[in-house]
Amino acid sequence: MTRHAPFYAEVQAHYDLSDDFFALFLDPTRTYSCAYWERPDSTLEQAQIAKIDLALGKCDLQPGMTLLDIGCGWGSTMLRALDAYDVNVIGLTLSRNQHDYIRAQLDKREFPGRRAEVRLQGWEEFDGQADRIVSIGAFEHFRQERYEDFFGFAYSTLPADGVMLLHTIVMYGLNHLRANEIPLTRADIGFMRFIRTVIFPGGQLPLPWGPIPRGVREYAQEAGFTVTRTHPLRLHYATTLDHWADALSARRDEAIALAGEDTYDTYMRYLTGCAHHFRAGHIDVMQFTCAKDPQPDLACAPLSRRAVDSRPGLERPRPRSAH
Q1: What is the spatial distance between Cα 254 and Cα 170, in angstroms, rounded to a whole number?
Q2: Catalytic site positions
Q3: What is 8-18+29-175+203-238+283-295's CATH number?
């Protein structure tokens, strides 16, 4: 265990708003992170399952292994791993609502010969071992002062051939924005402040790479990992956010009845504004494959904005209000 206490209050301020409210715009698996659009005509649920399979497929899971899911949300990755990979799964969440929801889902099912449990616990409190680690959409809550400790924790938790798949939103520095001719306005900065203070209090987006300040890749490498692949999914998240915003808008009356008009308006601003910033290139979302005994499948050199935009299978941007 580390010297840090988990950020329970900050996380619960967002995720424990209302399960019923989140269900209005999430897909049936309640996956609250970037989907992966292999086909333009995929449903949101299909695209979310494709994202989970993309992440788990990079973990090199083998039957009988134990997978640690850090920031397990409402359990979609845990359940997929149990169904498809014949592994044991431990899920960690700081959200009481998510913990209770997953516990109920696990109680409804049987996993003969395997262990499946969810804990109301942060990685800072976990003192066990795991063969593989997956973390999707939790790193944004850890803050830079804990990055070094987190990667040290992950490295020590895994065996000699261990792999961690880290899926996180990242931000780009001013040098990257200037080099790629991406404008950043006062309104853009104001929106980012709104996200940090209203939507995800205490949250912080890391840089993907760079020596000063260090990025995700450098923190991983300093802990002993080799980052064998960095997989950007920027426009996939913009499309995901479009689906969420459309679903919430279509159920406006129900949302207001559940959480009030101010909360509805706040979430619409959050969802549509984030879609704009992903499309503009201010932020990205990436999967980092971190291996202790690597078999590299792709160099982790930074990709230009043009290279990311030209990848096949991405839905092209559509006009949408940013603020």
Answers
A1: 33
A2: 274
A3: 3.40.50.150
